[in-house]
Design brief:
By secondary structure, the chain is α/β, with parallel strands linked by helices. The chain is built from three helices and seven strands. The strands form two sheets. The chain has a five-stranded mixed β-sheet with strand order 5-4-3-7-6. It starts with 7 loop residues before the first strand and ends in a 10-residue tail after the last strand.
Length: 137
């Protein structure tokens, strides 16, 4: 089994996500244990100390599908802010929790619409609240 990369998250995101998890029933969503594991292994830092090249809550990320020219952009959001028409991904989605804390250049497996997965790479963190000075959003 390969070692999972270190992830970095802000103390504000960690606190809000722990509150969110605590507010949900035990079986509220299938990825609850995965999100809890991600939070448990994360290096938590003050919002002002978050590296500018990692995915945080409310970050907008541009991805590229490995081996293709296909790109797409999504914003990692809390469930209440998820856009049913696309453009965002909830932290409660398995891919959403896998994105949290990953650096630019990082790769993850992404589910395909018809089944299976493809590998995607974080090409650019277009917007990160902490990098923009929004430490108390």
């Amino acid at each position: 089994m390969s070692k999972r990369p270190e992830i970095v998250i802000s103390s504000r995101d960690a606190d809000r996500l722990e509150d969110l998890i605590d507010s949900l029933s035990k079986d509220a969503f299938p990825g609850k244990a995965d999100l809890e594991n991600e939070l448990a292994r994360a290096r938590v830092v003050a919002p002002e100390e978050v590296p500018p090249d990692v995915v945080t809550m409310n970050s907008t990320v541009r991805f590229r599908v490995e081996g293709t020219d296909e790109e797409f952009t999504l914003t990692l959001v809390y469930p209440k802010d998820a856009d049913p028409n696309g453009g965002s991904i909830s932290i409660l989605a398995p891919v959403g929790s896998a994105l949290l804390g990953l650096p630019q250049g990082g790769e993850i497996d992404w589910p395909k619409a018809g089944g299976g997965e493809h590998r995607v790479r974080i090409e650019e963190i277009v917007y990160q609240p902490e990098r923009s000075g929004e430490h108390h959003r």
